[in-house]
Write a structure and sequence with these properties.
By secondary structure, this protein is of the alpha+beta class. Helix content is 48%, strand content 17%. Strand 2 and strand 3 form a beta hairpin. 13% of the residues are buried.
């Protein structure tokens, strides 16, 4: 019985640490939204999460070379939207452009990478919540 209780305690601690990290992430993300100039392209902070994805050009997001500069590329944050009524379903939108990646300062590079990873972190929670609600809806469906 104590092993079940220990597992429950461990799981509860993990969930609560994720929620604390999520709250911290949202606060930092909103600050970066302003600081990086993304607010000029996206009217409200909540609208950020309507994008299908946010990618980065000119800087690496790979775990083995996180933040490394891609020579000859331009640093920019790119959002992907899905337009079901268009011939081309996915569209890329530049949210912020920072010039040649070689010229981006280390502090700006850190903020850009933090923004993209922070957005993805929050988006994953929202996706999880969306699918949880859908699964609950399926359970409530009536067999015909």
């Amino acid at each position: 019985m104590s092993s079940a209780l220990d597992r429950l305690k461990k799981l509860t601690a993990q969930i609560s640490s994720y929620e604390l990290e999520r709250k911290t992430n949202l606060k930092e993300l909103e600050e970066l939204y302003q600081k990086l100039g993304i607010a000029a392209k996206v009217g409200s902070f909540e609208e950020l999460f309507e994008f299908k994805a946010i990618n980065l050009s000119g800087l690496s997001l790979g775990s083995e070379d996180l933040g490394s500069i891609k020579e000859g590329k331009y640093a920019q944050i790119i959002a992907i939207i899905y337009d079901k009524d268009s011939k081309v379903k996915n569209k890329n939108i530049s949210l912020a452009y920072y010039g040649r990646s070689e010229k981006v300062t280390p502090s700006l590079k850190k903020e850009i990478v933090s923004f993209v990873l922070g957005w993805r972190f929050e988006k994953s929670f929202r996706t999880l919540e969306h699918y949880h609600k859908l699964r609950c809806s399926v359970k409530e469906m009536v067999d015909e």
